[in-house]
Specification:
CATH superfamily: Winged helix-like DNA-binding domain superfamily/Winged helix DNA-binding domain
Number of helices: 4
Number of strands: 3
CATH topology: Arc Repressor Mutant, subunit A
Oligomer: single chain
CATH architecture: Orthogonal Bundle
Distance between the termini: 34 Å
Helix content: 55-70%
Low-confidence stretches: none
Radius of gyration: 18 Å
CATH class: Mainly Alpha
Strand content: 5-15%
Length: 118
Amino acid sequence: MGRQTTEMLKGVLEGIVLAILAQRPAHGYEITTWLRDQGFSDIAEGTVYALLLRVEQRGLVDVEKVPSEKGPPRKVYTLNAQGAAQLDEFWETWGLLTERLDRLRPAPHGTRTDHKEN
């Protein structure tokens, strides 16, 4: 990933993690692995754990410690109602931003687009 992609990702990483947790409970390593599998290879594991701590402190997730075959118990994060509301707000904001950004994107050469004014 390029620097610009990495910087943009930092701004939306919380929403991405909440979206992952909306699908199923997961621990930090699972989330990091999923992100890397999706091509977000520059994400440091520490970044994900710091974000998980913040969303836990803000009350957006429930946390359960489960035994691990390797080492100490793992924290498994589950999106709760407050987190689901935050995720809904994220998607609403995302939709608004993408709509506005699509208006700014130049059309492919040889095509015409009509821009609506709001």
